[in-house]
Request: fold
Amino acid sequence: MSFVRHIQERCRMNITIAEFAGACFGVERALDIVIKYADQRDNVVTLGPLIHNPKVVADLDSKGVRVVEKPTDVDDATLIVRTHGVVPEIIDEAKACGHDVVDATCPYVKKVHLAASRLENEGYQVIIVGESGHPEVEGIVGHAKDAWVIGAVSELANKELPKKIGVVVQTTQSQDLLQDIVSYLCTRCENLKVINTICQATSERQRAARTLAGECDCMIVIGGKNSANTTRLYEICLQDCTNTHHIETSDELRVEWFKGCNHIGITAGASTPQKHIQIVKSAIDNLVA
Ligand code: SF4
Reply:
């Protein structure tokens, strides 16, 4: 390639970060809480990984913050409950073990707990639109013990639907799935109450990712492979840009993804700190240089 053509191609290559991308209010808040306690105390642990982002968890580990799976795994700790929340019994158990419990559950997740609990108390069959087994969903079920967790419209086909159904949503679910489920239910149920608990941070990131993916010939989605909201962003981008890749760190970038591209888009899940986005952007800059 001639030097002039190389420069022309470089000039045509744009890299854009989505308007809304990366760490949300709840994650920033939880990180601030953990770092504050880690600076002041020994024996600070999180109950499960603080967020679904292995790099952030490794950074916290280097500050002495360990991950435990259950309250009985440690003695006399400052035990931090993560953004996803937990069932109330776990908090009771942790206190009974003598831990100082610090609740870093995102306030928006707490709203879902309250909504699900209120609907159940009012006699609604609670449906949680979400991913069965996801920690946030398990925490919500802990506040509405008879709830059904529904991850696709097809899962409703074999259910005998009661007259009163109340719907809440895992905060990171897609609006499309909620709409599909509500459309199915509203023609089959006499009394349907829907509390849309999808977090605005999630919808903003999904909307911005969709818009950007439609303009780009390569999309990079950054975030934990175990992060539900990052996986959702990946799926959304893939619909409009087949050259979409989900990475956790810049080491996974491949130069061939960018060959012939004019516009590269970057988005990131709500558990990805802003500094990780900048690291990936710089790495792409270097790869295409
Ligand atoms: S995505 Fe929303 S609900 Fe989830 S932690 Fe972030 S702010 Fe809270």
